[in-house]
Amino acid sequence: MGLLSSLFGGNKKDESSEQEKQEKKNFEILKYDGIRARNIRQLPYAIKCFEEATAIKEDVETMELLAASYLQTGKTDDARTVYNRLAEIVPENTKVLLSLAGVCFIQEDYPAMKEACEKAISLDDKNKAAFYLAAKAEKGEKNYIQAIVMLTKAIAIDEDFKDAYQLRAEVLWEMRQAKEAIEDLDSILSKESDDEDALVLKGEICAATGNFEEGISYLNKVLSMNPFNEKAYIMKGTALLGNKEFDQAIAVYDEAIELSPENAKLYQKRGRAKLLKGDKDGSVEDLKKAIELNPESENLINGNYNNFSQENKVGIY
Q1: pLDDT for 238-253, tens place per residue?
Q2: CA angle 178-182-183, nearest 5°?
Q3: Contact partners, residue 289, CB within 8 Å, separation at least 6
Q4: Which of 102, 150, 216, 222 is deepest in the core (most CB within 10 A)?
């Protein structure tokens, strides 16, 4: 029997079976070595393990771990490639589709993001996250009405969906629908009175719509809770500039910079305030510092500086 098996390929079958066993063993070793490495933040080694494991077998869990590790190390394009492949392997997996949508959002690829969300919604029309992400894609393309439609559907699924209320308020304010935006923010604040994002946006809206002192009070509340809230400082400074209180605005940015001396945006904002006050030399120094801290912002800063120099206007918007 051994001779016959040898003559008719029995050894080849045994060799194939042994090879499959070895590949399975190698895959398991690489996968779990990768998981252990990721758990102790050894991401480069984890990625290497996951890459080699998925080269052996396109396992969904391992590919998701690889994509997540790519994102943690800033390799967004690589993560997108993995999620695109996953969407082909498991096209009816809403989790994968929404993860793909999230990566598209980072890349500002809003058409692809919408497509992924639409597929997820077609699979599960009760998935609030799918509607929420679809709204973010619509907002990215400035399709504000459609964004509100998506967010309203998300809220209909979950009336306590705080992020959806916040985003809808932001979209409504983009459309300068102040009353409706504040209604959404009040829905959040009625349940979480210290919610920083809601308070900052409410402060911004109030300050810009004739309720200056009320707006400043909301921003001060945020800063008393969290002195490192960059957006609260920026909105407070912007509101003060809109009220032509230049010295007070500069003082706000001074305080913010003292807490976050490596924040390029704060120097840029203070530079603008100094320019509007008439301190051109001080403005130039701040803008130079902003460029030093963030060279990529040079074109934007130069453009803004030229606009400020030519117009010398004061205004929030």
Answers
A1: 999 999 999 999 999 9
A2: 120
A3: 264, 267
A4: 150
